Amino acid sequence: MNVLQSVKNLVRSKSIHVAYVDVGSCNGCDIEVLACLSPRYDIEQYGIYVHNNPREADILLVIGAYTPGWEEKLHTLWEKIPDPKVAIAVGNCPISGCLFNRPHSLIDPPVSKHIPISAEVPGCPPRPTEILTAVLSVAPIVFKDYEVSKR
Amino acid sequence: MKRTVDVSVPLGPIHPCFKEPARVKCETKGEYVLSAEVELGYMKKGIERIMRGRPWQEVMFLAERVCGICSVIHNMVFIEALEQISAISVPERAALLRVIANELDRMQSHILANFSYCYTIEHETLGMYLLDVRERVMDELERITGARVTCAYIVPGGVRFDIRSQDVLHLRANLAAIEGEVTRYMRMFESGPLIGLRSKGVGILTREAALEAYAVGPTARASGMPDIDRRLRHPTYKTLGFTPVSRTEGDNYARIMVRFQEVLESIAIIRRCLDLLPVGPIRGGGIPGIGEIAYSGEAPRGELSYYIKTDAAGRVVDISIQTPSIMNIEACCHYMLKGVPSLADVSSTFVSADPCIACTER
Amino acid sequence: MSLPIIPYLQEIARLEWLHKFFFVRTAPLVTPSYSRGFPELTNKTCTHALFCMMACPAPGAIDVIKTPDGWEPRIHKGHCIRCGLCVEACPNGVLTSGRILESMFNDSTRLSFSFRIDVDTNLCMGCGNCAVACPVNKLIDTQMAYGGRASTDQLLLKVSDGKCHVLHAELCTGCKTCENHCPNEAIRVSRLLEAVQIAEVEP
Questions:
Q1: Does any domain span residue B1?
Q2: Neighbours of A136 (CB within 10 A)
Q3: What gap in Å lies between CA B97 and CA B273, rounded to an integer?
């Protein structure tokens, strides 16, 4: 059991599948996540694959400030991700609503009201290196000994 | 008349090819797409409602965040509209610096659009090459303005930071490298046989259809409408003397090629700006006053219009923004997607029109 | 058939190639010095002018807090958008971010604030709440601090003939206390921000 668990820990920290969902951002964080794919930052050398398919994802990058169009949909999406799973809030919008958190706005931040968020990357938008560091540092901690801690 | 529809295929809102949430519903017969409609409304934040009653230093940042990809042009159009209202003059050096920042932004936006097209037709190698070039452009943008994406560079009466002499050298050297690489990738795109199969003759938008749908920007210029470029009416661009790019095919291939050629055009414009750059102040000062105006500029995706009404203290009383993507999405869904040979081409055709959902819905 | 594959296999079998394939990473990327990060404190003394808070476009991004050593601006991550307006608006250079301070020094650029008070005479009831609440008035005339009558004309706001009058608008510090105390929304303070470049004075 212990050997199996350590193998699982190793594999889970070396192969991370990422899906991202844009719940009403300005696109700025969106393209910074895309820039992580570029050869300069090369997210895949760390074993992180951006698939944008929730059903095979381990980590969900939430971008944007929860607009009314996403009620229920975000929760459905979160339930489709198989366990173990983690959501990371990228940018100011999911953390605080950024500039849009003003009277008369339609948004409903923070996103942590709607799905559990394990890590936050502040910045408007954060640099690709910051996103990369966040994903890399969160994944091994959260996925470690998942089966043991679940019991 | 009753139509024979096999199945209605929805794409999105979460789709591996779409970077932003939008749903395209395609009515298909076999693989053949009969008609398509788009469903928007996942990104509505109500920015125009937030903007009302706020001074320029707050609205400027909200305007930038209408669209994160083409943030500089939103900043530029808003500030220039305010300047027109209250007759604030801009020093010549600042006007040219604005053009440089704007053209760098246009370059990175076009390269990103071409990347997502190459990624969608599964030509990942070319896509990654393009992303690598884009990082060079982002470097230059950061070197001049201090930030990669939302630069906050343009303020009433000038720009925020001056360009230093070592930055000019760096920019010139980097432009030469970018030009070489973009030319090489353009040739790869032109001559790639598989790219040709996926792009040539797919998603045709004729000139008549483009006129009917009020298509703007590179989408319209690929259908043979060069005079749609708003830069031809801009006072600073007029002195630089450039000719807009246009092609006549109107298919996916033409739209991507127009963007490639515009990147080269932008490089030429930046070089001319650097040659003309005079020594002098970068800020003229000036406080916005009362007035109302409709002003438009050329965003990377097409014509962007602002209608602004201010009160005596320079606060925005009423504002309405018209972004280019809404016309292009209309043209894409009602004209291009009709008769697309297979479902696989739907996503690539949709991406080739470079829709920006964030600025469509605001 | 098998011939072209041999050099290829030889190429892969080289230790150098294998090492590169499995272990080489892109160079660790550093944030360049000219990038605008979150504003950081310099060693200058904050004078509690609050221009940083007035210029800040993001809600709840910056506060000026009283510490045992004096006033100190605090940036709240998750709210701050790293625009750098607070750095440019600060008259003392308390904050720094990227090369903003350096370029302000080189090009002698800055953001200057001026304030404008508009009183809507149709709405104003002459209650005097604004004149009593105004912190500038309290400093000039100590009677005003206790809700008394104005004894001098050197005030910022004064009620006479049943209406509020702005006497010395240049004294205003833009705190908007009057706006918050007005029961009828008759008074409005606008903070006018101007991006200026002061030409260098020849000695």
A1: no
A2: 15
A3: 8
Q: Are C185 and C153 part of one and the same domain?
A: yes
Report the b/e string of B298-325 with b at 16+ CB within 10 A.
bbbbbbbbbebbbbebbbbeebebebbb
Which residue of A41, A92, A120, A132 is the best one to mutate when testing the C interface, meaning the one whose CB has the most C CBs within 10 A? A92
Kindly report, residue by residue over C123-174, the tens digit of the pLDDT: 888 787 888 888 888 787 777 777 667 777 777 877 777 788 888 877 888 8
What token pair was written down for A20? 């991202």
Q: What's the predicted TM-score (pTM) here?
A: 0.88
Amino acid residing at B294: A
Enter the DSSP assignment of C45. Answer: P
Place of tokens 């009383």: B317
Pairing label, strands B158-159, B291-299: unpaired
Contact predicate B262/B235, CB 8 Å: no
Chain C residues within 8 angstroms (CB to CB) of chain A: 25-26, 29, 31, 35, 57-60, 77-82
Residue C202 has pLDDT above 50, yes or no: no
CATH for B229: 1.10.645.10
Domain assignment present for residue B5? The answer is no
CA dist B51 and B55 (Å) reads 9
Judging contacts by C-beta atoms under 8 Å, the chain C residues touching residue B283 are 109, 195-197
CA distances from B26 to A46, B8, B213, B250 (A): 38, 5, 19, 21
pLDDT tens string B149-170: 888 888 888 888 888 888 899 8
Burial of B30 (0-12, 13-18, 19+ CB in 10 A): exposed
* Cross-chain Cβ contact C26/A42 below 8 Å: yes
Q: How far is CA B351 from the centre of its chain?
A: 13
| First vs last C-alpha separation in chain C | 84
Residue B7 lies inside a defined structural domain of this protein: no
- What is the number of domains present in chain C? 2
Contact residues, chain B, for C190 at CB < 8 Å = 55, 313-315
Tally of structural domains, chain B: 1
Helix (H, G, I), strand (E, B) or coil at C119: strand
Q: Which amino acid is at C140?
A: I
- Give the domain range for residue C77: 40-113
**Model pLDDT for residues B219-258, shown as the tens digit of each residue:** 888 888 877 777 778 888 888 888 888 888 888 888 899 9
A45 to chain B, any CB pair closer than 8 A? The answer is: no
What's CA B103's distance to the chain center, in Å? Answer: 10
Nearest CA distance, B283 vs chain C (angstrom): 6
CATH code: domain of residue C168 = 3.30.70.20
Has domain A2-150 been given CATH number 3.40.50.12280? Answer: yes
Q: Per the domain annotation, does C13 fall within a domain?
A: no
| Domains of chain A, residue spans | 2-150
* B19 within some domain: no
Query: Cβ-count burial of C11 within 10 angstroms (0-12 exposed, 13-18 middle, 19+ buried)?
Result: exposed
Q: Which domain holds residue B346?
A: 46-361
| Percentage of the residues of chain C whose pLDDT score is greater than 70 | 93
How far apart are the C-alpha atoms of B219 and B355, rounded to whole Å? Answer: 10
Residues, chain B: 362
